[in-house]
Known about the structure:
mainly beta
Amino acid sequence: MNLPFISDQTFTQKDYTSTRLQKAEYDNCTFVNCNFEQGDISNASFLECEFIDCNMSNANVTHCTFNAVTFNDCKMLGVDVSRCNTMLMDFSCDNCVLDYANFSGLNLKGFVFSNCQMKHSDFTDAILQYVKFQDCILSNAIFEHTDLQHSDFTSAKDFLINPAKNSMKGAKFSKHTLDGLLRHFQLDIKP
């Protein structure tokens, strides 16, 4: 199925909660202050697009393609990223709220999450090699059978990772965040 091609456009303050975003290939488009909350953007394709200050909470992203996409200052509560098209998946998030997002089973090697709140997000069975969690809040995030090799948690906050249940060779942590690794062992750590 060939999708319509939409290129080099800016969409500002559009409400896609009841009216669906056109199913298309979006190339080099910008979405500013748009509301996709509980909307349906399934089967759409975004290449080199930017989402700024958008609400994508609980949006249906099934078979959606995000390639070279940036999300800035977006609210993305409960988004099931694991349902997206994984072919050529590449995106970054800066200053986004990704609470309850589902990344389980995905290959996110080299992705960057910066200044994001990711409480209760699920990374079960995901490949997170070389992922950077710069100044991210990871309270109650789930890391089970996750490949965290060479990932960077040096400035991450409130994570709890069981080293016995995850691959962690070369992962980076600061001495201030080690309690997130050792809490599973019920050690008494003094400052």
